[in-house]
Write a structure and sequence with these properties.
3 helices, two-stranded antiparallel ribbon, Wheat Germ Agglutinin (Isolectin 2), domain 1, 81 residues, binds zinc ion, single chain, elongated, alpha+beta, 4 strands
């Protein structure tokens, strides 16, 4: 019974290996390079992945320091002889 159910499910759904659950195929981004024409991760997960990356950088104090101390137009006045 489970096999029939999963085959039926895969007509309309696709398994996302990230959240390990079946999502509607419309819940995946189109990806022409992929054999199925769909991205391997669902929209939620690919969104999570990209925003997590950004959040990690922003949370990192060293990264924030870098932004704060970014040199502005370095070498315009000071480097003059
Ligand atoms: Zn997912």
């Amino acid at each position: 019974m489970n096999e029939i159910l999963s085959t039926d499910l895969e007509k309309t759904h696709k398994l996302c290996p990230k959240c390990n659950s079946y999502k509607l195929r419309s819940g995946f981004h189109n990806h022409k390079a992929m054999s199925e024409g769909l991205a391997s991760y669902c929209k939620d997960c690919s969104h999570d992945l990209s925003s997590a990356k950004y959040n990690e950088s922003v949370k990192d104090p060293a990264f924030r320091e870098q932004l704060k101390n970014r040199p502005k137009a370095k070498g315009t006045i000071e480097s003059r002889p």
